[in-house]
Amino acid sequence: MDSGLEILNLIWVQGQTCGGDSMAIMDTERPDLLTFLSQNKIKLLYHPILHPVDGPEAKKLFEDCKEGRTKVDIFIFEGTIPTKEGCGDWPGTDIKTLVKDLASKAGITIALGTCASFGGIPSAPPNESGSVGLQFHGHKKGGWLGENYISEQGAPVINIPGCPAHPDWIIRTIQAFVLEKPVILDDYNRPKDFFEEKAHRGCKQCEFHERGLWAEEFTETGCLAAKLGCKGRTTNADCNVRLWNGVSSCTRSGAPCIGCCDPGFPISMTPFNKETLNLPEDVRSLANEKKKILYGD
To answer: Which CATH number fits domain 8-194: 3.10.20.600, 1.10.3630.10, 3.40.50.700, 3.30.70.380?
Structure first.
């Protein structure tokens, strides 16, 4: 049956990356990636791993997109932009130019993964490639496309961080675009549907934290915040509610949250085993507000 949906073009480009976000989404289920694209009438024009075209055909595709002969409804970028001279050069062009060309024509632009969103691991000192995210460099807005970048649909770069990002975050963001539903963003351009909660919510170690029972080794029973430095109470992500592969998360597997969705990752999270028992200001303020509602002043 014809769903009545218009065919949308998706182009996915990688910069300086490990490819983890691509691997994560290729493992998604209910539905799998190809079924999702088919059901929503999304045509995959290019992906570095799943690419329908390569070589001269890919080069022609990029030129057609740049000149407006082929529309770019959804532009996904994975990895960082290496800004230093000689980094990211392609035959006849470079990743920096290509990204600006595609983003200037895109209906929406999505930065997938912490590297694309904020710079991530490649941007950590000494940052020899001069890596930045698409519209942020760490906590600071700007990035490669500049703080004033707006897509054809009137949106800034939509940041979906994670190392890697959860497949649901990208699938559901694209789905909202297809259905013309609003995507509400936070101060770091992250969809609030996935990044308003703290990773601490839903963690099975919460009861141990309340009782001051601390794990001293990985996989040991107890809260991971003291000896192992879990960042779950300061990191915005719904990992322990949504779960990976529907069954697990970092903390549920006995490993501490290292804050990979945070704009300052990895530098602001190191040393990873630093004790994190003090509540962050935003969590403390929210708790105080709830106490006033429940018990009054």
So the answer is: 3.40.50.700
The bridge status of strand 89-90 relative to strand 106-112 is unpaired
Position 116 pLDDT exceeds 50: yes
> How far, in Å, CA of 69 to CA of 81, rounded?
26
Per-residue tokens: 62: 């990029």
What is the three-class DSSP state of 39?
helix
User: Checking DSSP bridges between strand 42-46 and strand 8-14, what pairing results, if any?
Assistant: parallel
Q: How many helices (H) and strands (E) does the chain have?
A: 10, 11
pTM: 0.88
Nearest to 231 by CA among 212, 250, 263, 259: 259
Angstrom distance (rounded) from CA 132 to CA 153: 24
Closest CA to 140 of 107, 112, 118: 118
The CATH number fitting domain 197-279, selected from 3.10.350.10, 4.10.480.10, 3.30.420.10, 2.60.40.10 = 4.10.480.10
pLDDT confidence bin for 211, thresholds 50/70/90: confident
- Domains of the chain, by residue range, sit at 8-194, 197-279
**Phi, psi for 137 (deg, rounded to 5):** -130, 100
Cβ atoms within 10 Å of 39's Cβ, excluding its own: 13
Query: Is a pLDDT exceeding 80 seen at residue 281?
Result: no
